[in-house]
Amino acid sequence: MSNRTHPPLRPASAGRAGGRSAQSPPPSAAAAPRRRARRGPRGERLAPYVLVAPAILIIVALRLWPLGLGVNFSFTGDGERNGAPVGFDNYADLFGDPLFRTALRNVGLLVLLLPIAVAIPGLLATFIYLRVPGHRFFRSVYFFPAVLSPVIVGAIFNLLLAFDGPLNALLAKVGLGPVDWLGDPGIAMFAVVGVHIWATFGMALVVFLAGFATLDGALLDAARVDGASLGQVIWHVIVPGLSRTIQFVFVTTMIGMLTSMFGLLYVMTSGGPEGSTYLPEYYIWIQQGQFNRPALASAASTVLFMIMLVVGLLQLSLLRRAVKES
């Protein structure tokens, strides 16, 4: 009888070390959850595009497609050459027209005055938020001009700024001579822009107040504890905290100044005196409505669009840099 011991018998169903047990699911059943897991992130990535697709289609159909048609129409002729391709002839006529060059110079003036148009509602919103003396008055009346029609605003200021109007009468009492606010080519554009800022700053102020609602009050309290002045609080706390709001107001205010002053111009100066208050939108209306030159008006519209695009991008880049430095 041999003394050799035999290893214990293992069940027949047991495999090698690390092998699959008898209860493990088949390969196809184990791979199904993994396929669903791989499918899940892809669906999540596609969901935002599916949700924004209707809005993109509306923008393409109602904005970009008409814009492309307008740009294409600007390369066709007017009058006897109606619909015929003329290349860049319309653009050559534009830049050769003294009135259009005046309109472009006025666009440059608006860009220079844009920081003032943004600073006024921004400071008023700051005063209301910080509850400085007089904030209740501004809170009560700031939006009133925004509900008035540009025609009504223009008519009111035509009376106030007339050569024999109440403003010049007030200046005469303090020893200053009368000013021809709407008849002097060097002053008329500033007068119209000032009226436009007065009539529209209420909308920008509403946006600033909404931005202040997201500002961290603890930062203001910390600045006060550190003894910061009002100017330091505005520059080092409020401006960085409202950087996105300021960028939005800059862009929307610029678009409003370039595309929403037609009513004031038509009522107050009609482009005069001597064409000094022409803006591209008023020039477009003159070419289309009075001279029946729609292709030239389309070329002017294309130039206006490019100006707004370039100026808007430059403003955003400068504002981002200024916020980083502050």
TrEMBL record:
<dbReference type="InterPro" id="IPR051393">
    <property type="entry name" value="ABC_transporter_permease"/>
</dbReference>
<comment type="similarity">
    <text>Belongs to the binding-protein-dependent transport system permease family.</text>
</comment>
<keyword id="KW-1133">Transmembrane helix</keyword>
<dbReference type="InterPro" id="IPR035906">
    <property type="entry name" value="MetI-like_sf"/>
</dbReference>
<feature type="transmembrane region" description="Helical">
    <location>
        <begin position="248"/>
        <end position="268"/>
    </location>
</feature>
<keyword id="KW-0472">Membrane</keyword>
<keyword id="KW-0813">Transport</keyword>
<feature type="region of interest" description="Disordered">
    <location>
        <begin position="1"/>
        <end position="40"/>
    </location>
</feature>
<keyword id="KW-1003">Cell membrane</keyword>
<keyword id="KW-0812">Transmembrane</keyword>
<feature type="transmembrane region" description="Helical">
    <location>
        <begin position="46"/>
        <end position="65"/>
    </location>
</feature>
<feature type="transmembrane region" description="Helical">
    <location>
        <begin position="295"/>
        <end position="319"/>
    </location>
</feature>
<feature type="compositionally biased region" description="Low complexity">
    <location>
        <begin position="11"/>
        <end position="23"/>
    </location>
</feature>
<feature type="transmembrane region" description="Helical">
    <location>
        <begin position="142"/>
        <end position="163"/>
    </location>
</feature>
<dbReference type="Pfam" id="PF00528">
    <property type="entry name" value="BPD_transp_1"/>
</dbReference>
<feature type="transmembrane region" description="Helical">
    <location>
        <begin position="187"/>
        <end position="215"/>
    </location>
</feature>
<dbReference type="InterPro" id="IPR000515">
    <property type="entry name" value="MetI-like"/>
</dbReference>
<protein>
    <submittedName>
        <fullName>Sugar ABC transporter permease</fullName>
    </submittedName>
</protein>
<feature type="domain" description="ABC transmembrane type-1">
    <location>
        <begin position="99"/>
        <end position="315"/>
    </location>
</feature>
<feature type="transmembrane region" description="Helical">
    <location>
        <begin position="107"/>
        <end position="130"/>
    </location>
</feature>
